[in-house]
Amino acid sequence: MSLKESHKPYPASWAEMYYPNYSLREKLTAVDRRQAFRYMGLPENPDQKFLDLAEICEKKLLQAIQPRYCWKLFQKSDLEFLLLGQDIQKHLMNCQEMILFCATLSQHTDTCIRLVQTSDVLAGMMTDAMASALTEQLCDAAELEILENFKQKYATWRFSPGYGDFPLSVQSDILALLQAQKTTGICLTESNLMTPRKSVTAIIGLSDQPVEKTRKGCTACNLSKNCPYRMKGVHCN
After folding, report:
1. Omega of the bond prior to 196 within 30 degrees of 0, cis?
2. SS3 readout for 112-164
3. For residue 84, is it within any domain?
4. Tally of domains within the chain
5. Residue 207: which of 84, 16, 76 has the closest Cα?
6. Greater confidence, 114 or 232?
7. Which residue segment(s) compose the domain that 217 sits in?
8. How many other C-beta atoms are found inside a 10 Å radius of the C-beta of residue 203?
9. What is the pLDDT of residues 165-211, one digit of tens each?
10. 3-state secondary structure of 32
11. Does residue 45 lie within any of the structural domains?
12. What is the distance between the alpha carbons of residues 66 and 203, in angstroms, rounded to a whole number?
């Protein structure tokens, strides 16, 4: 599998704004099972066999993860080339600065999921769903830590490539600007998919004035037209 690298001549001064490789493992002590069950299409209180399976899978997963994240602060005007599409432009309206952010549960997590899948398909599905839920928990915790540095600012919620019309192709630039392969081990395939699989890139806007926070969810999701949750009249968040 070939990996994509960015060759844009980024200003050397940007490297000075790099904030490296933080771990939040001590804060990820349990999986949000409610969210994991939703990812699997299960009810909030599934049968006991699923609860027993979740107990086993969660223990293996928490032993495997090596969570990492990194971020940089930029002036929005310096990254206009990155803001492709109307949705991200609207999201960052009235923001003067923006934080680029990436996070991952590590390659060890991918390996754990594959090993479980080889012996038990259902357990593999459960472990994968739990890893997805745990990735969101990692991002939530990392975002809280990052924003502790900007208590005098107003922040948007994080917006990721693939939301709305914000293309996945910008991930190569985000990861290059964050030196992500070196700092977190995140790489990008030719099809703009990240490895390790349980990884996220995102942008958070910062403003000196209160920002309008639209509902995070369906309106920004590319799966909204075929979403199994919406078909049931519920939401994934």
Report:
1. yes
2. HHHHHHHHCHHHHHHHHHHHHHHHHHHHHHHHHHHHHHHCCCEECCCECCCCC
3. yes
4. 1
5. 76
6. 114
7. 12-230
8. 26
9. 999 999 999 999 999 998 899 999 988 899 999 999 999 999 999 98
10. coil
11. yes
12. 22
Enumerate the β-bridge partners of residue 194: 188
What is the C-alpha separation between 183 and 188, in angstroms, rounded?
A: 14
pLDDT at 214: 62
User: ∠136-163-58 over CA atoms, to 5°?
Assistant: 20
- Find the CATH number of the domain harbouring 185: 3.40.109.40
Measured distance CA(91)–CA(81) in Å, rounded: 15
* 3-class DSSP assignment, residue 212: coil
Beta bridge partners of 72: 18, 100
Length of the chain: 237
> What are the tens digits of pLDDT across the range 49-85?
999 999 999 999 999 999 999 999 999 999 999 999 9
- Asked whether residue 228 carries a pLDDT value surpassing 70, the answer given is no
Give a yes or no: residue 4 inside a domain.
no
Nearest to 193 by CA among 161, 225, 164: 161
Query: Has residue 6 been placed in a domain?
Result: no
Average per-residue pLDDT for the chain: 85
On whether the CB atoms of residues 57 and 133 are closer than 8 A, the answer is: no
SS3 category, 177? helix
